[in-house]
Amino acid sequence: MKLTTFILIITLAQVSAKGFGQGISLHEDNTPLEKVLESIRKQSGYDFIYNSNDIKGLKISVKLNNSSVFEAIQESIKNLPLSFNIYKKNIVITRKTPVLIDGTKNDPSLIDIADPIKIYGKVLDSLGAPMEGATVIILKKAQESKVGGRQMLTTVKNTGEFEILAEVGDRIIISYVGYQPHSFEVKSKMAYQNIVLRKAQTELKEVVVSTGFQTISKERATGSFGKVDLELFSKRTGSTNLLTRLEGQIPGLYIAPQSRVVNQTGIAEDPKAVVRGRGSVLNSSGPSSNPLYVVNGVAVPNFSSVNLDDIEDITVLKDAAASAIWGARSANGVIVIKTKSGSNNSKLSISYNGSLNYTGRPDVYYGNMLSSQQYIQVAKELFDNPVYRTAYPYTAQSFLAPHERILYDGLRGKLTEGQRNQKLDSLSAIDNRSQIKAMYDPAFTTNHTVSASGGNNTYSFYGSMGYSGMKGNAPGSKSDTYSLNLTQNLNAGNRVKISLNTSLVNMTASSQGPILPGNGFYPYQQFRDASGNPLNMNFMSGYVDSVRLDYQSRSRINLDYNPINEAGLTTNKSDNLSLNVTSNVAVKIWKGLRINGTYGYLRSPSSSRGYTDHQAIGQRRQLVGLTVAPTVNDLPVYYLPTSGGTLGESTSDNRSWTVRHQLMYDDNFRNGKDQLLVQFGNDIQENTASQTNTTLLGYNDALGSFAELDWAKLRSGIFPTVTGFGSYSYIPIDRKPRTKSRFLSYFALASYSIERKYSLDLSWRQDFSNQFASDLSSQKKPVWSVGARWQISKEKWLSNVKWLNNLGLRATYGITGNTPYGQVSQYDIVTTLNPATNFFYNQIAGEALYLTGIANKGLDWESTDNYNLAIDYAIFNNRISGSIDAYKRITTGMIGNVTLNPLTGYNSIAGNIGKMLNEGIEMSIRSLNIKGKDFSWSTTIGVGFNHNKLISYQTPSNNSKTVAARLQSEYVIGYPMNALWAYRFAGLDNLGDPQIQLANGTVTKKPNAATVNDLVYMGTTQPPVTGSLSNTFSYKGFNLSANMIVSLGGVMRKSVNTYYSGKLGGTSGSFSGGNISEYFLDRWKKPGDEAFTNIPSYEPSASLNTSRRSVNYYTFADVNVVNASYIKIRDISLSYALDTKLLQFLKIQRASVFASASNFLVWAANAEGTDPELPGLSSGTMPVKHTYSLGINFSF
């Protein structure tokens, strides 16, 4: 009989199955069969698979004592039109429905028994990975079959392939935990089945989590883990940075938005990751505040050696039970990556992933800056004030911008008022932003990865070749990344497994010198003439015309300044290579007992090269400063090369190796009801780093030659030069001392699970390091954790609560640690000194040693106590599920700079300086809102709240106790690490001067009147609340997802006007002009305006401005601190997966295409509409536009 409807009920995550012969007792009288089967399930742990319609209305009476599972089922369905099969821990029950020849009744002799058909196929997920363990079920059409009952159910091999016998009319169902089942009807002719399973929107939980030491079921894990959605991760192709792609996926993982801006080289900066709040002080001696990064079980400094298309799994370890096994470097969390590998007995499979990403030019119109018309109006308004002209009278040495020259020429009578106004109006009509925009190009990123995998009985492999190319917004900025990856697995007999992963990544990048067209130019400045030729802007060269012409004539060096041509005179290149080799050897000793060995080697040589041609304005000015030419007629004497350029090179080499051995025991007890896992091991790691910096002058890039110079004379200075006096103090060769850190660790893990209801995890680790004091009390600081889990929903007293599918309680406590970086050691660090190449010490005769770092004999580990309490839940047939975690982290012995007595010759030393608290709540919710035959809509919500407070802190220096330091978010006891402080603004007085209110209530405008006690805490710049909202809509092969990022509770300083005094456009002898904020238009102008504005008045006299008042009272006032909360659509993606029939016609395994768009601001809390992710334009950065992506992937 052809099935038109069916419901497949798979009860997941039940108590461990009892043995096949375990006693089953039943005493039922006229009881529904469904209830009897449920009783058998509870007593045995076996799961049932059946069509609910097949057993609907059936009642039985049965009495059994201490019977086997087989006997219990056989007796229960006796005399019923049902049959059953047992496969591993699953029992399949089907209805006996014979297929009869037309016109017959129930004569068994006339039953038509069809010939069986062999069906072959392969089951993959949407990313093309084989789905080992997927279940293949046959819902039978006939009562009897030549196939036999044993073929009713099978599982997919580790290659993803399956082979099964069935009959025409049977229905095949392929299912996998957390994925939508796929079914098809058996025809007389069956092609090879390429089946792609899609994630079910009712997905309860990630099945397993990886710590880098072991892979465990999340159902029994006590720790706090976060699993990354790799489908969303793979679609974020607009970024080649792994951390950026993680944004919004894990509650409690905050990705700082550095990558949302374009820096002066036109390349986006790297983001930073923070797990559950900042846990370390940021300074030269302190540990890194980033999480520990792990790839294939080995700690790495970054993810540069990973092709993002090769990633199979990403897990974030957040609490001590999850991360403590990583010891003294896990306090700030751990991000664990596992890369793809091949499968045994699988055919050769070749895949391609490719994408093209487009980002528009930076938004040059962003920011509240004056237009040309407004700027000229302000210039006229200021200049027409006699006080301004008195403060800045015209002299031959005056620095004059174009608009100022017009104003002074009008004042001196060289222009009539009409001519003056006409020229100023001409400047007012110019808007240079279109020319600035033309200086930038659209940015493009392309990603291509070709991979192959396959294997036989003993050997399997996965290999890939990747390329990622980026062309930045700034001309000449680009990068190219090439990657090779090969993972090989060998089964050397039944007891030994060997794996070897080798990855090689080479990244080259190049950029030109920056033009800096932000606020450094006037809004009317044209960069090119009408014919497109670059224009000189000599008034920006740093010299007034008379001085520039004098220097130029005597030195015979042209001092014209052309910003467009300047950009191409400086080039920067970098070349980074990353080699990562990881091997694993597993040896089975006895049942459940094995030895694992992990061996890793990482090397990352890199070089950077900066070359500035001698024609660059900076080189020419430097040459003039070291040229002797008393008069125009004297032949100049040059102390620096007049040809070639300046070459700066830096080379570094970082190496690390890891050796880890683990003795592991993993087995089940009490007929599979309990599970015990124990492992012991040791871990050895060494990291070394070296660096050399070289500066060469007069370098000929074509010949590779450079000038030999008298460095000692250059350092002592030349007098008299064209500019008066000149010196040069660069070190031609600067070798940094090689740093080496070593770690020796011993660890132990133990976990025990009882009936999958109660779990206990224990971990212990002892780390030794050469970075800490040799005192045993400092060395012996064990890192350990304990965690417990109670799976409440498995209790018998909740078995009748049908709407509750899962309820678990987790509690953990543990101690994790962190280590410093850089030149920190229990010993003094010395390095060699060569006076011939280091002229700062040229008075020394011969080679010598000098101290680069001094030891702290009492330096101790940075230690963090971690508390975590959590609930996992799923309700309403798993339509709603999620977890809630509450945590507390107390960090003691924070490592930072400790001030030393000046008589020691050193300012500070690394030491333990403070204590810090982080506490918060994390919540995740997954819901299936609509589930139809072809359409579904699901929602995922993630929220993280973090409260950070500095409990104690040893201030590094007295200078940090000043008002200026605290206004720059200096660390203050009792407040967050990212605290923002401000003055209490008390309005303007009748002169337009800003006033503040001191702590004692006094109102003042006197400069330097405030102390740190007079500042007010405004909040934290790191948002306390971060979250994400994702909606996914699926219709047949189409998938539409929208992912929103939420940031709440942070604060930021408003970008306000900073120009309140001085000459508009620059001062004599230097260019310090540029555009100013349009807030200047709303400044105080006359008495009474203080009732309507908070913006201070303009005071022409710079000396009076600083003696009478402090404009910082306004710029750093509480009224200029605004809410930094925002909501953004980080990305929207539409994908389409080709239908199975089309795939079979095209003879490919899978294929999909997608399009996405990213970075759309939805809402910002501040009234100005400022994007909180972007800094002010004065930083030389500009916001990036939206990114649009197209991608395709397929396998065959």
Automatic annotation (TrEMBL):
Q: What sections of the sequence does the record tag as coiled-coil?
A: none
Compartment(s): Cell outer membrane
Where does the TonB-dependent receptor plug domain lie? 221-334
The organism's place on the tree of life at top rank: Bacteria
The terms describing its cellular component in GO are:
cell outer membrane
Gene3D superfamilies in UniProt: 3.55.50.30, TonB-dependent receptor, beta-barrel domain, TonB-dependent receptor, plug domain
Any keyword Transferase? no
Q: Which residues cross the membrane?
A: none
Question: Keywords of this protein's UniProt record, alphabetized?
Answer: Cell outer membrane, Membrane, Transmembrane, Transmembrane beta strand, Transport
Give the membrane topology, semicolon-separated if more than one: Multi-pass membrane protein
In the record, the note on similarity to other proteins reads: Belongs to the TonB-dependent receptor family.
What name does the UniProt record give this protein?
A: TonB-linked outer membrane protein, SusC/RagA family
